[in-house]
Design a protein that fits this description.
This protein is mostly helical. The chain has helices at residues 6-11, 37-48, 53-67, 69-76, 90-116, 121-134, 144-171, 175-205, 207-219, 237-247, 253-266, 277-300, 320-324; strands at 310-311, 317-318. The radius of gyration is 20 Å and the shape is globular. Bound molecules: fe (ii) ion (2 copies). One fe (ii) ion is lined by residues 66, 102, 105, 158, 188.
Amino acid sequence: MIESLEGHVAEHLSLLTPVDQIWQPTDYLPDLTAEDWADRLRDFREAARAIPDELLVVLVGNMVTEEALPNYAVSLEHIAKDPTGAGEDPWACWLRGWTAEENRHGDLLNAYLRLTGRVDMRAVEVTIHNLIRNGFAPGHETHPYEGLIYASFQERATRITHGNLGKRAAEQGEPNLAKICRKIAADETRHEVFYTRMVAELFERDPETALMCYRAVLKRIVTMPGSRMTDGRDPDLFQHYGEVVQSTGIYTSRDYASVIRHLNAAWDLGNRSFSGKAAKVQDYLCKQPERYERLADDREGKPMEGPVSSFSWIHNRSLGEARRGPAL
Ligand SMILES: [Fe+2]
Ligand SMILES: [Fe+2]
């Protein structure tokens, strides 16, 4: 079935932007070859001082997740089977093109953080190194449809995360980071469209299997791709990063619900006719957005509790107070 989507994949390869038309990290960084490079760098660093610690932690976690791209490329290899590594089949072309575009995200965020001097880059690098070694376990090794459904979910989730962080950076008075996040979010949007359309086609051609795979992905709670990150110091680093992401409002249960609501609509789930067990699964999936919205309502009324977290990424400074207080 995945192979039979080749024609559909080929029609959507235009969702990749040609190299001569796409941005590169250098476009959003100070020009270090310019004569006045030191002034440009100073201004760039000055602007970055507006970012509070909470947002820095979110930014580092997002960057570390992007930097573990080798893991995601490997995991999609079971869909885009390409033993030569340079095949011209549509799936192979998509996977390489997607990887090349995604590669710019980690590069740009990495360069931003390094040049601004706001974080402990060695601690961040150790986290990236560990994450790539630890791998990526989304749990969909059983069925390739699940990989595409997961990718649809994740591309939208990262688009929301980068988009919200960009808005927050703008509010804090950091236009450089705001622009960087906007650019990355726009890429994630094109990628999301691709994966979502591939899954829509699976719903047309093989609706029951697509439905069951969608349920399998949501049943597990969609694990974030960076969930195995560690800095070798905080055993619950990912959880602590996740708490900051939630408490700053960058990505919350409400966003999780909105992603499911969007995918349900994109795949026209409510209007498809299924019978028997599949109809029950359909019903279960249609109710998920409300379920997570209720969860978000419950959470929003309560202050976040838990131990005060400090992050090696920001020289072991603590964020406990910010987490307990109102969102930024
Ligand atoms: Fe990305
Ligand atoms: Fe992405």
